[in-house]
Amino acid sequence: MPEVAGTAAREEILRRIRDARVPAAAPVVRGYHREGPGGVELFAERVADYRAVVRVVTDVPEALSSLRGKDVVAPDDVPDEWLVDGVGWLREPLSIGELDRADGVLTGCAVAIADTGTIVLDGGVAQGRRALTLLPDYHVCVVRADQIAGSVPEALARLQPTRPLTFISGPSATSDIELNRVEGVHGPRVLEVLIVT
Amino acid sequence: MARNPVTWLGSPTFPKAARVALNDTQLRQNLRKATGTIRGRRAAAVAEMDDWEQLRVAGEQVKDDVLARLDTLLVQLEESVTARGGTVHWARDAEEANRIVLDLCRAENATEVVKVKSMATAEIGLNEALEAGGVHAVETDLAELIVQLGDDRPSHILVPAIHRNRAEIREIFQRRMGVEVSDEPADLAEAARTYLREKFLTTKVAISGANFAVADSGSIVVLESEGNGRMCLTLPDTLITVMGIEKLVPTWQDLEVFLQLLPRSSTAERMNPYTSVWTGVTPGDGPQRFHLVLIDNGRTATLQDSVGRQALRCIRCSACLNVCPVYERTGGQSYGSVYPGPIGAILTPQLVGDMHDPQAASLPFASSLCGACFEVCPVRIDIPSVLTHLRAEVVEAKGRTAESVAMAAAAWVFGSASRYEKAQKAGALARFLARDGRITSLPWPGSKWTSSRDVPAPPAQSFRAWWKENRCQK
Amino acid sequence: MALFATCLTDTFFPSTARAVVRLLERLGCSVDFPLEQTCCGQMHFNTGYRDHARPLARKYTDVFMGYDHVVAPSGSCAGMVREVHPTLGTSPPRTFELAEFLVDVLGVTDVGAWFPHRVTYHPTCHSLRMLGVGDKPLALLRAVKGLDLVELPDATHCCGFGGTFAVKNAETSTAMLADKMRCVLDTGAEVLSAGDNSCLMHIGGGLSRLRTGVRPVHLAEILASTEEDPWRATP
């Protein structure tokens, strides 16, 4: 019975759309910039504007010393060299409770956007499932210089839309009180971006 | 047909509601501060982009293309979502949509659900319908939470609690959460984090809206800031997304336009903290049951109107609210709808679809036609033109009124220069009302003017009389 | 060229229209005032009486057809003619707001005016957003001898007039007016100028009610004022 009702609604909505006879639209003119200048420097500056921690490094293991003494989640396929000594590494399978109790999470990313200071995760290599980068309060994200796209259009072109994507621009924040931005609500309150050159 | 809950039952007409709001000193102060802050920030964020106008044009064109091919694109979206393991539902009106969502919650034996801020679900009155059906919906966006805990109504599209300042929010939190908290925004945010954490970790069903749906890939996009969206979109077993049928973009590439337009227009950021994109169900990551509910609720009727349909381009950024001088003084609740401000003044009456409804019919007049809304709209909705278009519909629906008689008389006078000249001379007699060249009091309806403004006394000689006297004989 | 005085200025502010004539003739223009003109239909159109606006739009085209340029001392009426009349099925002749005409068509910013007063300028919404007049009026004012131009805070904010909005939503209109007046008073100006007598009637009506002593003066009257023939307040 509900199926039949659903079909009727679908048909009626589609019929009403057709009845509106909206004229065909002009082709979209993409007169905006599709490419941005990009670069490590601009990306680092834009990430920092969100009050995230940004460091340009050459040696990832050395840069991870800040994680010492913490319980840190690492997706299955992070490079072995990232799993430095002195850190309580937490590996999948992890329950929601275990993720919630973790001090931090270490991941890579799929793409970054210089123009907007954004990192994008797509569940690919060194990123894990989405909950991993959500529940721990401290997210360290390693970005290779060659992963930085200049602009939003360049970044989207590099991404596969059917993968689960998370665009991250700074730590969790809100503008809900007097329309002023305050960092730190439900997502990780500290975001540290390591740019590897 | 049931009444469309996009307007709140029993709301007075705009001028009456505005009168009450204008007397609320605290509200005036809160709105002035908040809108002033965001106006400046938006202007700076937009000034950074030397291709902003080109992006606006592209945004307008992509959305017009969506409206022109809406049937095809919706079917395409349905196919893509279904192919990826999601289920698509169609709802003609609010009642139908609410029943679908309630049935889905019941099928999961859910008595409590977590919600991501969503205009579509606010528009259809979903929370109330779920509550009536025994399902409690917990709002997780900070501003929505403030409204929900304060037993209040929203007053802004992006920031429903914009009418509240930090001291008022503190009071609501202390009363409803039973915690001691300061009025520092960071502490208030922390209180919300603690309050909602357990709900996020244990609730099995989440309900969201959608900022965009990509027709060709079936991807749904939600932009947010706090991470409450990510919590709802990834932790529960079941996700129900309620979306207006117009929120489509044809292709993934089209999103590049809106991911640039929306954050700068709404929160004045280069990019909002979190944007989630998901397509149907991803095994091993996130909800394993996904339902997409497509709602019409007045949209196809709006689509019939060649002028008014541009309101369906709206991406709910709320830039028009923040620059609107009327909104700044009256606040959002005066509009009696979840869609306030300039966009609300054109969208709400169209979704209601009944110009005989005095409240909805008062909304197109809630504007001085200053055009600030059109100037900032990222998808170039010509709100002033739609306002005057809808005013004409209201006038038509009302038929003969004292105003229409006066307007007809004025048009008749203006129709001929000789009639106009006679009227000018007759009007000049009003000089006897004046003292020191000004008139301070007129009978109704002129009293609406003279309650706060003087009127200049009509001069003894009109310009045309002067012209005839000085130039015509030459 | 022809002058479209607008019904409001013709009836209530004849000194503005006389100033336009004086100013344009001083700049070498031959000004005509076709007596058949009445109203552009803006009030009707903006209030929802499109059907009454249509014959007025037609009448406008009939009256002014044959002139190279039409000049109106009003941004909103010029905007009505240029932006709205075509949507009502007419093709009006080229119509300009005064400042546009002076700067764009005549190519002058210094019109040889003299106005020894402290002035602040309100750029009316339709001049600003519908016509895109920009800072042309300010350029004209800056070139006026003796004039002390002070910047109006929040200048681009609407004054709250909005035609019938001022009576249909009188309380909201008054709240907007109050803020505009506060900004005007903050400047310490003696004179508030604008390119539209409708907004000036609204703001000026408020300033008069409060006995602020600030006088509304149309841009045309400032630009027409010279040392030989200075502006005089009309009673």
From TrEMBL, chain B:
Q: Which GO-annotated molecular functions does the record name?
A: 4 iron, 4 sulfur cluster binding; metal ion binding
Q: Which organism is it from?
A: Lentzea guizhouensis
**Keyword Transmembrane helix among UniProt keywords:** no
**Domain Lactate utilization protein B C-terminal stretches:** 396-470
UniProt name for this protein: Iron-sulfur cluster-binding protein
Entry keyword set: 4Fe-4S, Electron transport, Iron, Iron-sulfur, Metal-binding, Repeat, Transport
Pfam families hit by this protein: Fer4_8 (PF13183), LUD_dom (PF02589), LutB_C (PF11870)
Its lineage reads:
Bacteria, Bacillati, Actinomycetota, Actinomycetes, Pseudonocardiales
**Residue ranges annotated for the 4Fe-4S ferredoxin-type domain, each copy included:** 311-381
GO terms in the biological process aspect are:
lactate metabolic process
UniProtKB/TrEMBL annotation, chain C:
Coiled-coil stretches: none
GO molecular function annotation: oxidoreductase activity
Q: Which GO terms describe its cellular component?
A: cytosol
Where does the record place the Cysteine-rich domain? Answer: 2-81, 119-203
Q: Which InterPro entries match?
A: Cys_rich_dom
Q: Where is the signal peptide?
A: none
Q: What is this protein called?
A: Fe-S oxidoreductase
Specify the taxonomic lineage: Bacteria, Bacillati, Actinomycetota, Actinomycetes, Pseudonocardiales
